Amino acid sequence: MEANHILEATVTPASLLDGLHSRDAATAQRAREQLVEMGDSALPYLIGLLSDSSPRARWEAAKALAQLCPPEAAPALVQSLTDDDGGVRWIAAETLARCGPPAIDALFHELLRHSESVWLREGAHHVLTEKQHNGTLPSQARPVLVALEGIEPTVSAMNAAARALDDLHLHRYAG
User: Fold this and answer.
1) What gap in Å lies between CA 88 and CA 175, rounded to an integer?
2) Domain positions in the chain
3) Helix, coil or strand: residue 52
4) How many CB atoms lie within 10 A of CB 156?
5) How far, in Å, are 22, 59, 159 from residue 30 at the CA level?
6) CA neighbor of 89 nearest in space, from 110, 52, 64, 63
7) Does the structure show a pLDDT above 90 at 173?
């Protein structure tokens, strides 16, 4: 019993990262669950893994962040909306849909910079549609959703995002 206690005491977020890369789904899941239990101390590691070369690690990190939904992860999750792996994009969008103003802020700022990205626009549409369904889409953000559904979303979504950021007074969060 004492040996297990000593082993548990030496588990750190860094020591669990290899587990997220595992081909064994159960091993990866256990590592993810332990990282989620660690909470804030695991956030820098999880956020960093969103840009890892391993799709499995990116997916596991996004899945862990979905459970934690920390505001500081919003910019990295928005970047994950353009991930090569569709599963990572989906988890990132689902997570952002459940997060508060920092998610909208990061998403709209990214639309200002990269509205030409089809994956970003699709991810933004997913996030905003989910927020609308769960009743957390601010009315000032609705025009961005409409623009994303319009004929020329590359330009109209960028303009709508700029107006929404002003209307929501979110420019103060820009990073």
Assistant:
1) 23
2) 1-68, 73-175
3) coil
4) 18
5) 10, 14, 44
6) 63
7) no
Has residue 118 got a pLDDT over 80? yes
Record the tokens describing residue 131, joined without a space. 């927020």
Which three-class secondary structure state does DSSP give residue 18?
Answer: helix
At residue 160's C-alpha, the angle toward residues 71 and 117, to 5°, is 70
Amino acid identity, residue 17? L
DSSP string, 61-83: HHHHHHHH--GGGHHHHHHGGG-
Q: Rounded to whole angstroms, how far apart are CA atoms 51 and 54? A: 8
- Determine whether domain 1-68 maps to CATH 1.25.10: yes
pLDDT above 50 for 3:
no
Helices (H), the chain: 2-9, 13-20, 25-38, 43-49, 55-68, 74-79, 86-98, 101-114, 118-133, 142-148, 153-168
CA distance 48 to 104: 21
C-beta atoms surrounding 74 within 10 Å: 28
Q: What is the pLDDT of residues 79-111, one digit of tens each?
A: 999 999 999 999 999 999 998 889 999 999 999
Dist. CA 53–CA 44, nearest whole Å: 17
